Amino acid sequence: MRVPAPSPFLRWFARPPILAAALLVMLIAATAFLGFQNWRERQAANDRLDHSSQLLDTLGRLRTIVADLEAERRGYLVTLDPAYLKAYGVSDDSVRREAQALQAMVTDDPLQSLRAAHLTLTLSATLRETDEMVKTARESGLAALAMIRSMDEIRSQIDQMVDHERFLLVEREARAETLERRKTWVVVAAVLIVAVLAASALALALLEARRRRKATDENLQLQSDIEERNRKIRRLLDSNIIGIIIWDLDGRILDANDAFLDMMGYDRADIASGALRWRALTPPEWRDSDARALAELKLTGTASPFEKEYWHKDGRRIPVMVGGAMFEESGNQGVGFALDLTERKRAQAEARESERRYRDALMELTHANRVTTMGQLTASIAHEINQPIAATVTNAEAALRWLARRPPELDEVRQTLDRIARDGKRAGDVIGRIRTLIKKATPRKEDLEINDAILEVVDLTRGEVVKNGISMQTELAEGLPLVQADRVQLQQVVLNLIINAVEAMSGMAEGSRELSISTGKDALNGVLVSVRDSGPGLEPKDAERLFEAFYTTKPEGMGMGLAICRSIIEAHGGRMWATANEPRGAAFQFTLSEEGSVR
Predict the structure, then answer these.
(1) How far is it, in rounded angstroms, from Cα 119 to Cα 112?
(2) Which is the CATH superfamily of the domain at 240-340?
(3) N or C: which end of the chain has fewer CB within 10 A?
(4) pTM for this one?
(5) What distance lies between CA 582 and its chain's CA centroid?
(6) pLDDT for 19-45, tens place per residue?
(7) Is the distance from CB of 75 to CB of 202 less than 8 angstroms?
(8) Which helix (H) or strand (E) holds 384?
(9) What is the edge-to-edge ordering of all strands in the sheet holding 243-248?
């Protein structure tokens, strides 16, 4: 799945130098802000220091004026000498002006403002009292002492304000010193930060320069790789190993190599004219496959190879295997690959025909083997047929005698006719089984009860077995699963194994002749069939070669019977093998699965 690329702005902003510059600007802005804040605080502290100095100067002037006024009034009251008095009201006005100025300067300090107001009232009252004393107390020395006490109270209030303001001045000077030190640290920190960031920016710039050089080298290498890839693609196109086309989603074929054009019967003039379109080359029944491949291309960028057909220019169909991939750059164009499967399809058809001929030949050979085997049983089969025929003749003669009596013995006649019908059915069954085994027919799969098929073969071979003095026993397990098989072919296998056992034991001069046929379940819940004899047995070197075509241990054998038997069992999905029987003889076994297949 394609991942969307980041925007050019994000790619630009993600570069380390840009980030470093942005961080430097932010730190400079923060330092400037802190410096401005520090400057404002220092400016406010200096203003407060100036205010305190002005306030102390005002209090000092006021104290001086009060002292001058006190000395003036006291000298006059003590000596009653008019020389001590200045022009009336001049000292009073100075005191009032300074008191008003003092009130204006302490409006921001509630305590000092309260003291200044109280001092102003006290001064006003004291000035009025002293004026009255000057007018009325020429003969009294006690008035001078009263005025002195009033002036002491005023000086005390002034001293309180001075002490308070000096205390504030000490604090403000300490604050100013702290701000000055902070200014120094801020400047030092700013210088250090700027130096570190400048060094970092320089290092990042060097890294960015290296990265750009590396990116440039990589781009040059990438460009070289792309050119090399294009040359390889062009060589692939020109090599004409398979058909290659360049197409777009609108159905146009933009370019094609000679292999594709030769495969389809077109030339480059058809491409140049725009008449060659991959949609038009596709027969209608294959367009759904094209739609699925196109959806896969849009989703994943590639289409898995699949088989389809193209129209040749002359109208015939060309079987091909196609695949493709989208170009990431355009998103609308891609490359397609087409492999001509004409020769492959022809080879497959020839292989199927060869296999059909092989199966026909094998069926003919199998049929010939059955006929040959049945030919070996001619005497036994004649005996099996003669018995019911002779019994039928005898019973017919008996029925005539019973009818000739007066009165006729009808019950005896009926019983005799029943025996005639039974013997006729018996003879018909023998002939039917023989006809089935001899008849040439294609294999037919059916649900088969293996025990019934074996018993029919046992009935056919019983005469041959008895004629050769062989004791035949059957141990057929009950409850075996049905197998999907061809009855005639399986009976041919069992028939071949019984005849082989009879022939192996017929030449024995001494020892018992025993033949055992058994069935049971194998480990995979299939059917296991065993045919064991007490003949001369097998040589270890012959155990596996017995099933090879044209290999035989018989003087007059062809070596095809067991090979045909194994091919039949394997065609049914089973397995066949031979082992030594204990204490002597040979054992041939085969298995069949519950769902055997006839090919």
Answers:
(1) 10
(2) PAS domain (3.30.450.20)
(3) N
(4) 0.40
(5) 60
(6) 666 776 777 777 777 777 777 777 777
(7) no
(8) helix 378-404
(9) 253-256, 243-248, 333-340, 317-326, 302-311
